[in-house]
Specification:
The protein is α/β, with parallel strands linked by helices and about 325 residues long. The protein has 9 helices and 10 strands. It is globular, with a radius of gyration of 18 Å. The model has no long low-confidence stretch (mean pLDDT about 95). The chain binds 3-[2,3-bis(oxidanyl)phenyl]propanoic acid and fe (ii) ion.
């Protein structure tokens, strides 16, 4: 088996809020599972589809996709802060292949990736300086959004590139499922927020701390039933997981940005990373989801899903 997949939610609140013990234990067991899965698969390379939350990508230049040739962590919420082990030559060849399939992508020789992209690898491998990784940004917060069918085709192109590779490749998707954390949106932003969304790189320590405190306070209120963010939507989450399990990745095409905003929250778009990862794996062959964990967890502001998938023999 040359390709495998881990698609999982992330939340910077893992270390900052306190769900009931049984919930924490269940999440920890899911993390143990993905760690064991990755260890067993023993990838030569990870292709990491990750979102960003205005730490690395801003409205000064917002691409739908970006392949990182070289990358570093932004360290927000104490996430990976420093260089990332990217095989530049392989990333260059991958981007050329994607473009040759008529799918345009941005590239970066200095891509900045935030908690949303790095958290699964921190959990699974203990850092981003171990297994070589090609980080791929999939815009999941900043309108305008590409159609989900485009994300599927992008993922498919990535998968095709690795289909006959002699390397063992693990596709990771990070984010989702339904959730609506307090990330400003350009359409409703104040003047100050607009400035941040457009040009907010390298915040002062005070600005970063204030942003993080706001997220943590919102999560605590949300768990107490007092926050004015959208509720989680377990039904929507379960339906999305069913599409993942069906193996019919064209099923993702029915999702639209407006509907997702309306029923699953403004950060539900992070499932685009799952769409890319599942479509990449599907391009390598028929797959089966061999592990699924799901729980709506208000303390983490996340419909929290963890899945692994392998190719059918
Ligand atoms: O402050 C931010 O940028 C949002 C943090 C955040 C919170 C809950 C779930 C997430 O997926 C997430 O990213
Ligand atoms: Fe996120």
């Amino acid at each position: 088996m040359q390709q495998a997949l881990i698609a999982m939610s992330h939340s910077p609140l893992l270390e900052h809020t306190n769900p009931p013990e049984d919930v924490k234990a269940a999440v920890e067991a899911a993390f143990d599972h993905v760690r064991a899965f990755a260890k067993d698969f023993n990838p030569d390379l990870v292709v990491n589809f990750g979102p960003d939350h205005y730490n690395g990508f801003f409205y000064d230049l917002m691409p739908p996709f970006c392949v990182g040739y070289e990358a570093l962590g932004t360290g927000d919420y104490d996430s990976w802060d420093g260089p990332i082990n990217v095989p530049t030559n392989e990333a260059e060849k991958l981007a050329q292949y994607i473009i040759d399939q008529d799918i345009d992508t941005a590239i970066s020789r200095k891509m900045e990736v935030d908690h949303g992209a790095v958290q699964p690898m921190e959990i699974i491998f203990g850092g981003l300086d171990t297994v070589p990784v090609i980080p791929i940004f999939v815009n999941s917060v900043a309108r305008p959004f590409t159609k989900v069918s485009r994300v599927r085709k992008f993922g498919q192109a990535v998968g095709e590139y690795f289909k006959d590779s002699d390397k063992k490749v693990l596709f990771i998707g990070s984010g989702g499922l339904s959730h609506d954390p307090p990330v400003p949106q350009i359409a409703t932003a104040t003047e100050e927020q607009r400035a941040f969304l457009t040009d907010g790189r390298k915040p002062t320590p005070e600005a970063r701390a204030a942003r993080q405190a706001n997220t943590i306070n919102t999560a605590i209120k949300f768990a107490a039933g007092e926050a004015d963010i959208m509720d989680l939507n377990p039904e929507w989450d379960r339906a999305f997981l069913e599409v993942c399990k069906s193996g019919n990745v064209e099923g993702f095409d029915a999702y639209t940005a407006d509907e997702m905003d309306a029923v699953a929250g403004h950060s539900s778009h992070e499932v685009r990373t799952w769409v890319a990862a599942y479509s990449a794996l599907r391009a390598c062959g028929e797959y089966e989801v061999d592990y699924e964990f799901y729980k709506p967890i208000k303390e983490y502001i996340a419909g929290f899903g963890v899945t692994t998938a392998v190719l059918k023999k």
